[in-house]
Amino acid sequence: MQSNILIATLLGLVVGGVLTYSFVAQTQQTNMLDQPPVAHDHMDDDHAHSHGETVGADATNPPELTIESARISGGNNVDISVSWENFTMAPENADGEHVDGEGHLHVYVDGHKIGRMYGQWYHVFALNPGEHEIEVSATTNDHKIYIVDGQPVAATTSVTIK
Question: pLDDT category, 144, cuts 50, 70, 90?
Answer without folding.
Answer: very high
